[in-house]
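sanity check this record:
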Amino acid sequence: MFDEVKSMLADAKPFTQPNNNVEPIPLMTGPEKSAPYPVDLLPDIIRDAVSSYQEYGQQPIEMVAMSAIACMALACQGLANVARDRQLVSPLSLSMIVSADSGERKTSGDRMFFSGAREWQKEKREEMRDRIKLAEVAIKSFEAQRTGLLSQITAFTKKGRMSQAEEMRRQLEELELKAPIKQPQPCLFYEDLTQEGLLKGLANDWPSASVASDEGGLVVGGHSMREEKATQFFACMNKLW
């Protein structure tokens, strides 16, 4: 070991000042110049809609395209998945974010491209209104009957009238097998939400929705993004995805 170190010291050269004319190589590269957005790669009908609206609204083409693609994801994510092969099957859902200055009209782009989804939601709710009301009546009636039977079972049991309590229990079993189901209604848009509210909405209302806002602070600054809840919320979103 000593001989190796002695040999290295013998071969060492004295320090010399670097040539000041040589530009040092930076440790980190600066931001690359962005390439033009490949709008021509969009499907024809989407490309035409994006280009047409961009000419009208004068927003950056990237921002208009993002609104269009986000709307496509919302429309399709409940209908199909994408399979790269038999094993790698993933949802069509997308996670997207845009940083824009005030006045760049992101809200206008979102409003235009999502107008169809909002109109569908409105029409679907109107179409289902009577069914929803009837389902609510059926649920209230079921709960009243259930409460009555439970009260009778308790009363008969306390009095030792077990045969009558058993008859009430049988009726309760029959009632439970016919329990009405809540009529779901479309709820496609969430902004400032809680994890519990999102899970309840997806389970009881519509199983496909978006967590989106043209004001990002409503999402990233919302209840579920607080420091003590953010990790759990992101894990929940990843699990849902």
